[in-house]
């Protein structure tokens, strides 16, 4: 890197000065070089000796080859520039032919060190390579100074050796003062001095141009001598200079990056893969601001993917706990006992699962079944970043944006769908610090669909804290506990076992039609329903006797009853039980699974999935407070189409030992199908088996 610094010391002031043909002095009219010249006259005379602005504008690229000597070191160099501001320098050690390549592609500086392939190019910090970036410009600040809003100043004449020169000053970025010394006889730039303060020390860099030769319509200095604070720093002598050579801008582009290279360098920012693998736990403390509320935040993580997050409201000290134990996400709301912790539905839990690993999904991704894809480069808050997409089964699509210079993660974007709506969460990482060998963002701003959502600030990060795995265990109700609570709402399992029959009376409204409804049920699975049209007073009957589903149409008597194919009457047969599938599921050949909690009409409910013998899926949603069934959702396939039937249960009353909904809204694929309202419910009525038996022939 030392030779690069030497070369860059004043490379940015290499200028294409245009001299006389055949090294003869250009004749300038006496009036032109008189003391009456203005600053503008001097600069335009400088243009004229350089073949004029039109020729300068026509210069597209230039290649210069030569040798750079500095003290005891010497290198063969090739400099290639391309408009508007691209530069590539190759430096080769003539002893071992090792080569360093340094490039500015108009956006970033990248470098390939000796012995490395192009694919192993590194991006260098811009702030440390400003001189190199400035050297990419073809001409000095006097070129099109008016159009570029540069204001040069005339500082009089100065004797440089045997040459008298006009001294023209340009202030650059308020950090450097540049002096252009233009020969009063031929208007060529003989020297450029740059004066700047670096770390409080005044640095004077002199670039002295000699051996000016004609190349086509242009003239170039074939020798450049660099002095710093009066001491010789380097001498560069060019063997050949070509202009408008056939080179495309792709020559300057950052080499195609491999995902493995990005990850390797990212791991290096975290102390290396070995250090990451050894880390087992971390504790994070800070605060999080959500709109107008602020919370104290504590996060524990334990490898491989356990997380427990506590948020305490600063206004009332109420605490919410959210935890992932490797299988389910559970939540404990303020004021609840530990046994009241609820399991969060998986589609709502993906975000916390994705944040559970100590080092995100870029770490050991193959072992976790994660697919990574490099999508290219993207600007994030004006910072060039590598964009990497991560996808997996247990979390939504995540994109990581890694700084191309430092390889710190600058942004994380999460894409998920909840209740049919796409949610895009952007986490912008700032105040990145090194803790032990690992980097941590001490400030994170979250946006949800473009709107500010939260601001998190950390005040403590500790690694390798003592924390046991059972700290993450789910402390709340399991499926068996929920079923027990449900049985209690029905008078207990003994009361449910002893109930033999029931009768329901009410009305059912379907469209503009209204019917009187009577339902008889008898254990184990007998049902008979009578429906009378309130307008025509005609009655239809449908029943199941444990073997046959039969029907009597309006105007017929029982002797005209007809059997219906049972394979098409699955839902009707399921409803023959006095209690639903949650009652003694093992006797009904069904499988139950607790899926966590879900909000139903502003009520938090336990979601229990039931899969029966014909693979029909039914979900029962039980109020987490009183364990009443609030919604029954049935999902089935008919003729290749998915049909979702929902029964919304309202006006729940206790009749004897049991609770029952006196108002039920039925929806099919989101559209209201019917409204059932009960008037009377009686349990333990006397009813014979023959009442349900198929009466036909």
Give a structural overview.
The protein is 11% helix and 50% strand. The longest helix is centred in the N-terminal third of the chain and has 11 residues, at 39-49. Residues 1-33 have low confidence and may be disordered. A 13-stranded antiparallel sheet has the order 6-5-4-3-2-1-13-12-11-10-9-8-7. A 13-stranded antiparallel sheet has the order 19-18-17-16-15-14-26-25-24-23-22-21-20, with helices on one face. A 13-stranded antiparallel sheet has the order 32-31-30-29-28-27-39-38-37-36-35-34-33, with helices on one face. It is mostly beta strands. The protein has 10 helices and 39 strands.
SSE arrangement:
Blueprint: H1 2-8, H2 39-49, H3 53-57, E1 61-70, E2 73-82, E3 86-92, E4 99-104, E5 109-112, E6 122-124, H4 130-135, E7 153-160, E8 163-172, E9 176-183, E10 189-198, E11 201-215, E12 218-228, E13 231-243, H5 259-269, H6 273-278, E14 281-290, E15 293-302, E16 306-313, E17 319-324, E18 329-332, E19 342-344, H7 346-354, E20 371-380, E21 383-391, E22 397-403, E23 409-418, E24 421-435, E25 438-448, E26 451-463, H8 479-489, H9 493-498, E27 501-510, E28 513-522, E29 526-533, E30 539-544, E31 549-552, E32 562-564, H10 570-574, E33 591-600, E34 603-611, E35 617-623, E36 629-638, E37 641-655, E38 658-668, E39 671-683
Antiparallel strand pairs: 1-2, 1-13, 2-3, 3-4, 4-5, 5-6, 7-8, 8-9, 9-10, 10-11, 11-12, 12-13, 14-15, 14-26, 15-16, 16-17, 17-18, 18-19, 20-21, 21-22, 22-23, 23-24, 24-25, 25-26, 27-28, 27-39, 28-29, 29-30, 30-31, 31-32, 33-34, 34-35, 35-36, 36-37, 37-38, 38-39
């Amino acid at each position: 890197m030392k030779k690069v610094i030497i070369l860059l010391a004043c490379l940015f002031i290499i200028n294409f000065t245009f001299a006389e043909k055949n090294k003869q002095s250009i004749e300038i009219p006496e009036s032109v070089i008189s003391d009456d010249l203005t600053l503008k006259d001097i600069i335009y005379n400088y243009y004229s000796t350089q073949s004029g602005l039109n020729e300068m504008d026509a210069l597209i690229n230039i290649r210069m080859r030569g040798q750079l000597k500095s003290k005891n070191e010497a290198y063969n160099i090739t400099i290639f520039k391309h408009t508007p501001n691209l530069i590539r320098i190759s430096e080769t050690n003539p002893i071992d032919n090792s080569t360093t390549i340094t490039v500015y592609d108009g956006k970033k500086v990248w470098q390939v060190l000796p012995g490395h392939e192009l694919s192993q190019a590194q991006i260098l910090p811009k702030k440390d390579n400003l001189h190199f970036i400035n050297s990419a410009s073809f001409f000095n600040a006097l070129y099109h100074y008016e159009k570029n809003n540069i204001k040069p100043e005339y500082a009089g004449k100065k004797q440089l050796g045997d040459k008298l020169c006009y001294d023209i000053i340009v202030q650059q970025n308020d950090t450097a003062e540049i002096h252009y010394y233009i020969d009063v006889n031929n208007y060529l730039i003989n020297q450029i001095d740059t004066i700047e303060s670096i770390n409080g020390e005044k640095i004077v860099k002199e670039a002295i141009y000699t051996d000016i030769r004609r190349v086509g319509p242009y003239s170039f200095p074939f020798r450049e001598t660099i002095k710093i604070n009066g001491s010789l720093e380097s001498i560069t002598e060019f063997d050949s200079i070509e202009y408008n050579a056939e080179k495309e801008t792709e020559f300057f582009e950052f080499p195609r990056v491999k995902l493995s290279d990005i990850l390797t360098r990212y791991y290096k920012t975290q102390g290396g893969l070995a250090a990451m693998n050894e880390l087992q736990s971390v504790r994070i403390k800070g605060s999080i601001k959500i709109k107008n509320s602020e919370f104290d935040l504590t996060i524990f993580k334990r490898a491989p993917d356990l997380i427990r997050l506590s948020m305490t409201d600063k206004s009332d000290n109420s605490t919410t706990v959210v935890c992932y134990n490797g299988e389910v996400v559970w939540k404990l709301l303020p004021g609840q006992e530990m046994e009241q912790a609820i399991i969060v539905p998986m589609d709502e839990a993906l975000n916390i699962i994705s944040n559970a690993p100590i080092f995100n999904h870029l770490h050991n991704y193959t072992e976790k079944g994660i697919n990574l894809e490099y999508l290219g480069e993207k600007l994030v808050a004006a910072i060039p970043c590598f964009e990497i997409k991560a996808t997996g089964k247990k979390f939504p699509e995540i994109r990581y944006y890694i700084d191309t210079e430092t390889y710190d993660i600058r942004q994380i974007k999460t894409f998920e769908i909840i209740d049919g709506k796409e949610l895009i969460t952007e986490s912008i990482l700032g105040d990145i610090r090194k803790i032990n060998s690992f980097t941590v963002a001490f400030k994170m701003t979250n946006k949800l669909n473009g709107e500010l959502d939260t601001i998190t600030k950390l005040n403590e990060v500790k690694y390798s804290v003592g924390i046991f795995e059972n700290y993450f265990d789910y402390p709340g109700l399991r499926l068996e506990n929920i079923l027990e609570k449900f049985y209690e709402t029905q008078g207990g399992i003994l009361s449910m076992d002893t109930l033999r029959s029931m009768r329901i009376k009410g009305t059912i409204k379907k469209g503009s039609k209204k019917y009187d409804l009577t339902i008889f049920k008898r254990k184990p699975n007998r049902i008979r329903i009578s429906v009378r049209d309130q307008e025509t007073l005609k009655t239809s009957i449908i029943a199941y006797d444990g073997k046959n589903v039969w029907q009597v149409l309006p105007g017929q008597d029982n002797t005209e009853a007809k059997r219906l194919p049972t394979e098409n009457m699955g839902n009707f047969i399921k409803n023959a039980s006095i209690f639903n599938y949650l009652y003694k599921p093992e006797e009904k050949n069904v499988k139950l699974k607790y899926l966590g909690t879900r909000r139903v009409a502003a009520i938090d409910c336990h979601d229990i999935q039931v899969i029966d013998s014909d693979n029909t899926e039914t979900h029962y949603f039980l109020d987490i407070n009183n364990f009443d069934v609030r919604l029954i959702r049935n999902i089935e396939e008919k003729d290749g189409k998915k049909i979702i039937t929902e029964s919304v249960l309202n006006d729940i009353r206790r009749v004897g030992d049991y609770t029952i909904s006196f108002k039920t809204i039925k929806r099919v694929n989101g559209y209201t199908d019917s409204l059932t309202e009960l008037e009377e419910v009686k349990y333990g009525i006397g009813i014979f088996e023959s009442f349900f038996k198929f009466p036909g022939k």
